[in-house]
Amino acid sequence: EDQVTQSPEALRLQEGESSSLNCSYTVSGLRGLFWYRQDPGKGPEFLFTLYSAGEEKEKERLKATLTKKESFLHITAPKPEDSATYLCAVQGARTGNQFYFGTGTSLTVIP
Amino acid sequence: GAVVSQHPSRVICKSGTSVKIECRSLDFQATTMFWYRQFPKQSLMLMATSNEGSKATYEQGVEKDKFLINHASLTLSTLTVTSAHPEDSSFYICSARADRADLATNEKLFFGSGTQLSVL
């Protein structure tokens, strides 16, 4: 069964303190691993898609990497506006359209 | 990017009433739309896959007669929570998968902004 586990559940950082969020996954035939940002009371906002091990994507202070078992979302010198819940999802070959979401990491960046 | 409009954003209703939530793809066609439910501090749980012109496919444990889904056009899917009860209170999110190849970018799914349902 396809599974996604995110850690830590919550993370508090000082502004400028870099860190990484983890997404471990088990999927049959990975078709894509997706990172989203979700603000309270809002729908998920797309950040990145990664397709194969070794792939990296960057956007401003965020960088996503992928191995065969996990993905990391690296946050460099975060700002308070980066505070949000970050969700990871996988799409597997066996499950077609379905995305399996992790429970997310709630990030708080303190000024 | 493509826009998905979800309405209403917040609804409060009395127990026993029905509530309809709309999900529209504004600038693209979507044969397939998805409905999720999210409890506080929990992940998005897929409820059903909505296909234009055919019956929705419900995930295990989701009551078809409780959560009615209609996907009557390529740009609109609706979720009706029938005879709502307090335990149906939750955050409901829709997403749409773009049909057009030029929109089927890395983003794959486009999400609505969600509907917070509170049943008194």
What does this structure look like?
The complex is a heterodimer of chains A (111) and B (120). Chain A has 111 residues and is mainly beta. Chain A has strands at residues 3-7, 10-14, 19-26, 30-38, 45-50, 56-59, 62-66, 70-75, 84-92, 99-101, 105-110. In chain A, strands 2, 4, 5, 9, 10 and 11 form a six-stranded mixed β-sheet that branches. A five-stranded antiparallel β-sheet of chain A has the order 1-3-8-7-6, with no helix packed on it. The radius of gyration of chain A is 13 Å and the shape is globular. By secondary structure, chain B is mainly β. Chain B has no helices and eleven strands. In chain B, β4 (32-38) and β5 form a beta hairpin. Classes of the chains: A mainly beta (111), B mainly beta (120). The interface between A and B is medium-sized, with 22 and 27 residues.
Uncertain spans of chain A, ≥5 residues at pLDDT below 50?
none
Terminus-to-terminus distance of chain A = 41 Å
Helix content of chain B: under 10%
Sheet bearing the most strands of chain A, described?
Answer: 6 strands, mixed
Number of strands of chain A: 11
Query: In angstroms, what is the radius of gyration of chain A?
Result: 13 Å
The pair of chains with the biggest contact is: A-B, 22 and 27 residues
Shape of chain A: globular
Strand content range of chain B: over 45%
| Individual helix count of chain B | 0
Number of separate helices of chain A: 0
Q: How does the overall form of chain B come out from the CA principal axes?
A: globular
Oligomer kind? heterodimer
Q: Can you give the helix content of chain A as a percent range?
A: under 10%
Salient structural properties:
A: 111 residues; 6-stranded mixed beta sheet; 5-stranded antiparallel beta sheet; 11 strands; B: 120 residues; mainly beta; 0% helix
SSE arrangement:
The complex is a heterodimer of chains A (111) and B (120).
Chain A: E1 3-7, E2 10-14, E3 19-26, E4 30-38, E5 45-50, E6 56-59, E7 62-66, E8 70-75, E9 84-92, E10 99-101, E11 105-110
Parallel strand pairs in A: 2-11
Antiparallel strand pairs in A: 1-3, 3-8, 4-5, 4-9, 6-7, 7-8, 9-10, 9-11
Chain B: E1 4-7, E2 10-13, E3 19-25, E4 32-38, E5 44-51, E6 57-58, E7 67-73, E8 76-81, E9 90-97, E10 109-111, E11 115-119
Parallel strand pairs in B: 2-11
Antiparallel strand pairs in B: 1-3, 3-8, 4-5, 4-9, 5-6, 7-8, 9-10, 9-11
